Amino acid sequence: MTLYQPFLDYAIAYLQERLDIQPYPIPTGFERKEAITGKGKHQEVVVTTSYGFQSHKLRQIRAAHVQGGNSLQVLNFVIFPHLKYDLPFFGADLVTLPGGHLIALDMQPLFRDNLTYQEKYTQPILPIFQSYQKYLPWGGDFPEEAKPFFSPAFLWTRPKETEVVENHVFAAFKDYLQAYLDFVDRAQPVTDSHYLADIQEAQLSYLHYRAEKDPARGMFRRFYGEEWTEEYIHGFLFDLERKLAEVSLVQQ
């Protein structure tokens, strides 16, 4: 069972169709990792595969795909724009556990309370969000501290049936990704120094939150150990701070 492989295949093919994407460096040891979990007839091999790309306007396009048989399927697919653009992040967290599916899909805003920003990046996708409400109803409470990082078009749902994921979630994933790349097409570089500083601060704030609160941390630690997990989170999944530090060293 590889529930989210079609999502990943579609995303990569579509990105290649729309953008001139190049490989994004994946640190050694993170391209693929395996572990064995469970005992006896419940034993499963868990494989985590990483993918990384970049383009002229997008600093990092990356995916972590975890395949653990019937007990675990995860795709975390995130796009981080370059710091000279005020684009939101594209974020898809698609999780399947024995108890059901957890789906989070959004264009996560840099400035949630800025009305001009919301008019530019949230209003155009609200019709997409609303079109899926009857198939993908609201998934219930999520942490208060997370709310500033999500848009009013945050698609958060917990479908019970796998066919809902295969059909409606997949369709929503395609629509959100297409809309995001439309934003990328139109994006112009920011030249105002104060706004550029705000963009960097907003990106770092989001990455700090995600790196510290990554819901996959416990899972990865269980499978691959603490050292690998922390390096994977800070050195690949949410690596902006490291990259900025490298640039600073070079410039000194």
Automatic annotation (TrEMBL):
Keyword Oxidoreductase recorded: yes
Domain of life the protein comes from: Bacteria
InterPro entries, sorted: Ferredoxin-dep_bilin_Rdtase, Phycoerythrobilin_Fdx_Rdtase
Alphabetically ordered keywords of this record: Oxidoreductase
Catalysis: reaction(s): (3Z)-phycoerythrobilin + oxidized 2[4Fe-4S]-[ferredoxin] = 15,16-dihydrobiliverdin + reduced 2[4Fe-4S]-[ferredoxin] + 2 H(+)
Pfam family, one: Fe_bilin_red
NCBIfam families registered for this protein in UniProt: PRK13250.1
Family classification: Belongs to the HY2 family.
UniProt-recorded name of the protein: Phycoerythrobilin:ferredoxin oxidoreductase
Organism, scientific name: Limnofasciculus baicalensis BBK-W-15
Taxonomic lineage from the root: Bacteria, Bacillati, Cyanobacteriota, Cyanophyceae, Coleofasciculales
Name of the coding gene: pebB
